[in-house]
């Protein structure tokens, strides 16, 4: 192959992390695939950084909404617009953007390039690095949609955030505080200082204390855990309070118990949302919201990122870096 031919081929291909079967992290492989082109109302983004979320390894192992492979995972993305499709006026090549690809079927940011609808993205704040911006979208939109769109958190309300040191949790603490709430978080003792540093007013050690006894008269509970903790969380709500679970499914028992207690409960899945991203970008730019990146991995080390994520011990977020 001549140099020119190799160069021409490189312009039309890209590296991506793909899998042919469901399974453990080692099913992930770096492969070369055709570079996508933006369709009508889409932009092509040269990916600089892409967050890794629990939904990534759950889909890798079980398929969930995506079904059987092959597929490339990744919903978070921060990068630079490479090209725009027909009808796009909001962005031009060279613009720095970040956002979340439409969940769940708009997946594919663990690659050198990705396409997505224009309104899944907003301008990246200059105050954020691509790594920070690539870590934020999915967890921040999840927290925003749970606390603001569903629970309508207001100043003076009491908010309980479970797993407050995790990806969604550590962002949710800050969003609730930015809206003037009194925030209680649950976390292991080793992470209490971290959670307090986010602005939490109280932190409960879930390993040694019963949050049902420690947290009372709560207006809003954010549940990223599911299981028995979700059901028991209803007991801490004041009359009319609401539990928002970000793990939908098998919700009948929770809804019935909520009705018995005179409280509300709902479950949700995150959606791409330009208005939400605008609000998130503003909070980040003002310094009211910061993302904690626990570690970064180059694209070729996606397996290691998944292995680390599945330990369940990550504080904040993991990020795959694609470009400097």
List keywords for this structure.
alpha/beta, Quinone Oxidoreductase, Chain A, domain 1, Rossmann fold, 6-stranded parallel beta sheet, 11 helices, 27% strand, globular
Spans with pLDDT under 50 lasting ≥5 residues? none
How far is it from the N-terminal to the C-terminal residue, by CA?
Answer: 29 Å
Let me know the average pLDDT.
96
The helix-strand sequence is HEEEHEEEEHHEHEHEHEHEHEHEHE
- Count of extended strands: 15
Q: Architecture of the largest domain in CATH?
A: Alpha-Beta Complex
CATH class of the largest domain: Alpha Beta
Helical amount among residues, as a percent range?
25-40%
Number of separate helices: 11
Query: Which class do the helix and strand fractions yield?
Result: alpha/beta
The CATH superfamily title of the largest domain: Medium-chain alcohol dehydrogenases, catalytic domain
Please provide a written account of the structure.
With about 325 residues, the protein is of the alpha/beta class. The protein has eleven helices and 15 strands. Strands 3, 4, 5, 6, 7, 14 and 15 form a seven-stranded mixed sheet that branches. The two termini are about 30 Å apart.
């Amino acid at each position: 192959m001549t140099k020119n031919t190799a160069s021409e081929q490189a312009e039309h291909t890209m590296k991506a992390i793909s899998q042919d079967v469901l399974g453990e992290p080692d099913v992930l492989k770096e492969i070369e695939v055709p570079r996508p082109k933006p369709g009508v109302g889409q932009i092509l983004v040269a990916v600089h950084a892409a967050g890794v979320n629990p939904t990534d390894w759950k889909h890798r192992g079980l398929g969930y909404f995506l079904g059987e492979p092959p597929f490339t995972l990744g919903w978070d993305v921060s990068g630079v617009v490479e090209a725009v499709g027909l009808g796009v006026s909001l962005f031009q090549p060279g613009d720095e953007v970040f956002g979340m690809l439409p969940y769940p079927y708009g997946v594919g940011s663990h690659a050198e390039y990705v396409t997505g609808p224009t309104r899944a993205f907003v301008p990246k704040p200059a105050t954020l690095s691509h790594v920070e911006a690539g870590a934020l979208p999915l967890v921040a939109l999840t927290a925003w949609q749970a606390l603001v769109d569903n629970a309508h958190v207001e100043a003076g309300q009491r908010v309980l955030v479970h797993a407050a040191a995790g990806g969604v949790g550590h962002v949710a603490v800050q969003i609730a505080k930015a809206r003037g709430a009194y925030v209680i978080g649950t976390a292991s003792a080793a992470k209490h200082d971290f959670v307090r540093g986010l602005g939490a007013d109280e932190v409960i050690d879930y390993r040694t204390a019963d949050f049902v006894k420690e947290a009372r008269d709560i207006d809003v509970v954010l549940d990223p855990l599911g299981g028995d903790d979700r059901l028991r969380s209803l007991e801490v709500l004041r009359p009319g309070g609401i539990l928002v679970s970000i793990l939908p499914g098998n919700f009948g028992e929770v809804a019935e118990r909520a009705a018995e207690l005179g409280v509300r409960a709902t479950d949700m899945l995150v959606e791409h949302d330009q208005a939400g991203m605008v609000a998130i970008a503003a909070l980040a730019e003002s310094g009211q919201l910061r993302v904690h990146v626990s570690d970064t991995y180059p694209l070729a080390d996606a397996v290691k990122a998944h292995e680390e994520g599945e330990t369940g011990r990550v504080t904040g977020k993991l990020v795959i870096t694609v470009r400097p």
